Structure formats: structure tokens, C-alpha cells
Amino acid sequence: MAEYVVKVGKRGELYTPKKMRLQIGLHHGNEFTAVVKGEKIILEKRKTIIDLLEEDAITTVSEDDIKKEREILEKELLER
Known about the structure:
This protein has helices at residues 18-24, 49-54, 63-79; strands at residues 7-8, 14-15, 32-37, 40-45. By secondary structure, it is of the alpha+beta class. The chain has one domain.
């Protein structure tokens, strides 16, 4: 785990070191979430749709599986 010094500007801007931004892939316009725990702030980069598409798949779904699920959902909707 790396530790960095982040400065706060006059208007509350956070000035992050370039090395830190490169390490987590933070670019201009990216968003992050902030969690406050006592005097600690935990920042986590929010994933973009591109980030999600570039991740490895956690499972695979066959065409037959999709058809079966669709049939179940159609049946449920017709029963309502």
C-alpha cells in the first residue's frame, strides 16, 4: 500500500500527486466516492462503463439460459 501527501487548495480542491493518479488510473473528469471515518477519508474511484467492460467476466451465460429465463419472466408477467 502506497501513502501520498495530498494538499488542499483555497477552495477545497484536493491536489493529488501524479504518481498516485497514475497508480489508480484517475483521469480528469473521473469521479470518486468519499467515506469519512472519524478523521480519516477513504477515496475510491468510481468505475465508468468502460472500466466495467474491460473487467474479466465473472460468469458466462448461454443463449439457451437466456431463452429459459425469458420464458419464465414472460410467464410471470402474463400471470399478473
